[in-house]
Amino acid sequence: MTILSMLTPRAGLRVLVTGGASGIGLAIAQAFVETGARVHVCDASEQAIDALQHTQEPASKAGPSAITATLADVADRDAVDRVFADVRKQLGGLDVLVNNAGIAGPTGGVDEIDVGEWEQTVDINLNAQFYFARRAVPLLREAREGGSIIALSSVAGRLGYAYRTPYSATKWAIVGLTKSLAIELGPTGIRVNTIQPGIVKGPRIERVIAARAQQLGLSYEDMERRYLDTISLRRMTTPEEVAATALFLCSPAGMGISGQAISVCGNVEVL
């Protein structure tokens, strides 16, 4: 095997991406499809799933879509069970779990945040990662070349983030979950890593910047400039850059990497 060939995941991987019908999750799902993987996604948005199924190219003229999908709230354990029933039906097993689903959560001072919004952020960003990991591990143990779990955290999982405490707390917790599972599952050949995206282009960060601008009494443009000024490269990360890192972690070149939190952020210095 050449070094170049080591950088591409083997064809035929069976991949589950949570929150995979839009944003970073969709970029990751499409990237795996490009390498010949069979991909199933779940998403809480029926509109996003419909858009995915109407826009993607079929795997073959007579065959099914390259990406299959389940409508599911990742914080609902019954829905998680339905996702894995569909995974068994569509993929017949699992090689890679990408725990991507998450929400931005509320913006506000700690004494202003609604308790229900705090609990919702923890349920979707953290508890759901546990629900999916516990169901995926028995399947990943059967993976031919060892399974892989990739958890999406955030640069807010290595930096403090004022007025975004629910989000930051869950993203820090994901790193702890990742490192603990890497130790626990390593002897069975399952690798567990975290990707920590920075300020990623797209509608989600636009909503976050708008909310933060309102909180601080700034214009959107001034708030966006403040964000960019915290990045050493002075630009936002793209979803495709995050997806490329996920592919690397599942390639032969990434087989020796486990228990790591890898920032893809242009070096965000402070939040």
TrEMBL record:
Gene3D superfamilies: NAD(P)-binding Rossmann-like Domain. The keyword Oxidoreductase applies. GO terms for molecular function: oxidoreductase activity, acting on the CH-OH group of donors, NAD or NADP as acceptor. Its EC number is 1.1.1.391. Keywords: Oxidoreductase. Pfam families: adh_short_C2. One of its GO terms (biological process) is fatty acid elongation. InterPro entries: NAD(P)-bd_dom_sf (IPR036291), Sc_DH/Rdtase_CS (IPR020904), SDR_fam (IPR002347). Belongs to the short-chain dehydrogenases/reductases (SDR) family. This is 3-beta-hydroxycholanate 3-dehydrogenase (NAD(+)) 2. The lineage of its organism: Bacteria, Pseudomonadati, Pseudomonadota, Betaproteobacteria, Burkholderiales.
